[in-house]
Amino acid sequence: MQIHYLSEKNSVLNHFLGQIRNINVQKDSMRFRRNIERIGEIMAYELSKVLDYKDIEIQTPLGIKKTTEIQNSLVLCSILRAGLPMHFGLLNYFDKAENGFISAYRHHTNQEDSFDIVVEYQAVADIKDKILIVADPMLATGQSIVAVFNKLMEKGSPKEIHIAVIIATPEGIAYLKKHLPKNCHLWIAALDEKLNEKKYIIPGLGDAGDLAYGTKL
Questions:
Q1: Which of these, 22, 39, 74, 160, could form a disulfide with 97 (CB 3.0-4.6 Å)?
Q2: Are strands 116-124 and 98-107 parallel, antiparallel or unpaired?
Q3: pLDDT, position 108
Q4: pLDDT per position as a tens digit, 19-28
């Protein structure tokens, strides 16, 4: 797996990462969603550097200009519901991409900390021979992304797979390395310290879905 760490150098990305973690800024859910969207835009820009391009000519009012445009067919697939603001950020840059949405959540079978990942709703474009970008803000254990990946592969094999996450843990990265194909790309905005005993990211930011859309039952 090829891993791309995006926050190793100072940039406006780190500014937005700081805001989505800040408990005082988090009180404004609209601002939280917008910052997640901005991070998605930055990640789309970085990811665009490894795509394929073709030469084209553009007619301007005063002449012809040679340039390039993205050659690949893209499918953006976000994990509901936390992935929605990130999806919009990616789509702002990859505006011709097809789209997909899939749900995955932790189902606790008892009062202990163990859980299963349940994948239910899905509405996904044809991914066969296309560039598949899976977006999920938080990479904790990695089980949700692997479960979603396995479900998506039932629909066909994409040409290339990119996983875009905002905050990741070493444990989650190790899990993806073990269960996903070696030719996958993993894009990480920030690498955090660890998982706690309940499998939440430390220091993390809390529940991204709740912060964006309100607490759930």
A1: 74
A2: antiparallel
A3: 62
A4: 999 999 999 9
